[in-house]
């Protein structure tokens, strides 16, 4: 096992015992020493390799704690409607993409956001039929909680005027009861299943081709929130020795019974591929008017959002999962959904404390809330008190500024309240929710520090009291992400005994203006002591 000395760098270790260093000694996958160049050379075995980092700045490898890698890589080969400013522009892109497909292929893609169209009209199957009349088309919105389909897709999905709304979903209908082509939440599940099928191509090949994009932005570990097909693809890559980064792989709620029967538990696996929590949806998203709110949406007095998993069922699933050693990651965006989740976690905790047989799960299981976007202020301290991890995506805050300023103005909410959560002692782990947002973690670091859009608006940032300093933002993408995957002893900091996962940047983030954090680039990405990507 050859020693390697990585030298000639400014190293920010995020280790309070030694915050800065100039060299690192790596043996195998591990850091043996982090300190001065002389110290590392003295400890290196004879014949050690030396890697000159060229005066770059080194940080621990960055961790995305919420990413949909299968949707991300598949989306790179599908029609992308992000950035469209009107329905007509979206339809033009769809027409162009349809012309490139074989006659019998489905059309997939999406990421449209009608809230940002010049005329924010909700699209219909009739619109889609004009440019894609013969092949089925399935196009989720930017938040993934609304699915736009054409008539051919509705027919193939078996949805018509007689189809009942599923629990936790809505088939939007016209005045005659006919489906309009808009499926909300669980009503779109069957369409999403097709987007996870072989109809969308070879996922193993797509991951192999596109995962280097994540390495290129400094990610060395991800927490993947996609389905069992994605896990199978990662297992294939791992078996072939082709997995370039570390994966903490969640379990979809639909597979919970299956994995319990298989004896899986959160934390199973090794340093490259581990089993994560079971993900359970409790509500939708703000842009789709489906996140569960305590007050109704303006202009929609009967709409508080959608409880995708009702409270009683969610509590049952928490107890079932935890009883099998599986932590829960609850998708919750609205304040009512977050309160429901926190109450369920509190009841589980109370029951576990009262049951000697279950009490061992308390320190072992780290339940999470994915997104944690809008909280009632009185609920903010509960996450720390219950030991719940807030898994948040800073760019959602800045992307949603136009939406929240219009839809939530005047409400007593703690929105994207990462500073407040940290002040109570909660763990806040950051991610991107790609492909909903760009996976570049420096976009998220910029958003956490400035709470501004890329153009610098609004001045001072939205809710500036929730801004973070750079240290705290980096901790969200390193130390907290490692804690959320039960790996704080392995990664998140650069110190002896930890995994040799790190990145090198041409510019020191601590030496740039906050506005420039978004544009930082990565020169080198190392995972397990091996250079996996280099500019």
Automatic annotation (TrEMBL):
This is Amidohydrolase 3 domain-containing protein. GO terms for molecular function: hydrolase activity, acting on carbon-nitrogen (but not peptide) bonds. It comes from Micromonospora pallida. InterPro entries: Amidohydro_3 (IPR013108), Metal-dep_hydrolase_composite (IPR011059), Metal_Hydrolase (IPR032466), YtcJ-like (IPR033932). Residues 51-531 form the Amidohydrolase domain. Pfam families: Amidohydro_3. It comes from the Bacteria.
């Amino acid at each position: 096992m050859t020693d390697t000395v990585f030298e000639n760098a400014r190293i920010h270790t995020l280790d309070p015992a030694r915050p800065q260093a100039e060299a690192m000694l790596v043996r195998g996958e591990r850091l043996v020493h982090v300190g001065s160049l002389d110290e590392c050379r003295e400890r290196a075995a004879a014949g050690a390799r030396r890697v000159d980092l060229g005066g770059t700045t080194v940080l621990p490898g960055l961790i995305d704690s919420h990413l949909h890698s299968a949707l991300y890589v598949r989306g790179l080969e599908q029609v992308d409607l992000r950035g469209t400013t009107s329905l007509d522009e979206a339809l033009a892109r769809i027409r162009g993409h349809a012309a490139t497909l074989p006659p019998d292929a489905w059309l997939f893609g999406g990421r449209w956001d009608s809230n940002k169209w010049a005329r924010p009209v909700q699209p219909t199957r009739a619109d889609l039929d004009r440019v894609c009349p013969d092949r089925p088309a399935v196009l989720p919105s930017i938040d993934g909680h609304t699915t736009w389909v054409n008539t051919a897709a509705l027919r193939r999905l078996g949805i018509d005027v007689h189809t009942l709304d599923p629990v936790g979903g809505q088939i939007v209908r016209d005045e005659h009861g006919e489906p309009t082509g808009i499926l909300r939440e669980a009503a779109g599940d069957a369409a999403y299943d097709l987007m996870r099928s072989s109809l969308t191509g070879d996922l193993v090949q797509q991951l192999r081709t596109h995962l280097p994009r994540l390495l290129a932005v400094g990610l060395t570990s991800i927490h993947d929130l996609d389905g069992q097909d994605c896990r199978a693809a990662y297992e294939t890559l791992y078996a072939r020795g082709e997995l370039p980064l570390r994966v903490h792989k969640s379990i979809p709620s639909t597979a919970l019974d299956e994995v319990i029967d298989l004896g899986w538990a959160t934390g199973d696996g090794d340093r490259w591929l581990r089993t994560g929590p079971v993900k359970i949806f409790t509500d939708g998203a703000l842009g789709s008017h489906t996140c569960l709110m305590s007050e109704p949406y303006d202009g929609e007095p009967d709409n508080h959002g959608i409880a995708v998993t009702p409270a009683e069922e969610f509590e049952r699933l928490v107890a079932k999962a935890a009883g099998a050693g599986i932590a829960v990651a609850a998708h919750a965006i609205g304040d009512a959904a977050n309160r429901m989740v926190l109450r369920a976690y509190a009841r589980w905790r109370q029951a576990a404390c009262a049951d000697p047989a279950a009490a061992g799960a308390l320190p072992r299981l780290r339940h999470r809330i994915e997104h944690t976007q809008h909280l009632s202020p009185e609920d903010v301290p509960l996450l720390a008190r219950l030991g719940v991890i807030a898994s948040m995506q800073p760019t959602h805050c800045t992307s949603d500024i136009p939406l929240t300023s219009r839809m939530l103005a005047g409400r007593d909410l703690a929105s994207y309240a990462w500073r407040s959560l940290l002040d109570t002692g909660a763990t806040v782990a950051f991610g991107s929710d790609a492909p909903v947002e760009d996976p570049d973690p420096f976009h998220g670091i910029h958003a956490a520090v400035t709470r501004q859009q890329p153009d610098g608006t609004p001045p001072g940032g939205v809710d500036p009291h929730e801004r973070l300093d750079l240290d705290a933002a980096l901790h969200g993408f390193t130390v907290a992400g490692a804690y959320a995957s039960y790996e704080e002893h392995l990664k998140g900091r650069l110190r002896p005994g930890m995994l040799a996962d790190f990145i090198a940047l041409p510019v020191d983030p601590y030496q740039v203006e906050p506005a420039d954090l978004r544009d930082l680039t990565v020169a080198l990405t190392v995972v397990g002591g091996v250079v996996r990507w280099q500019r």
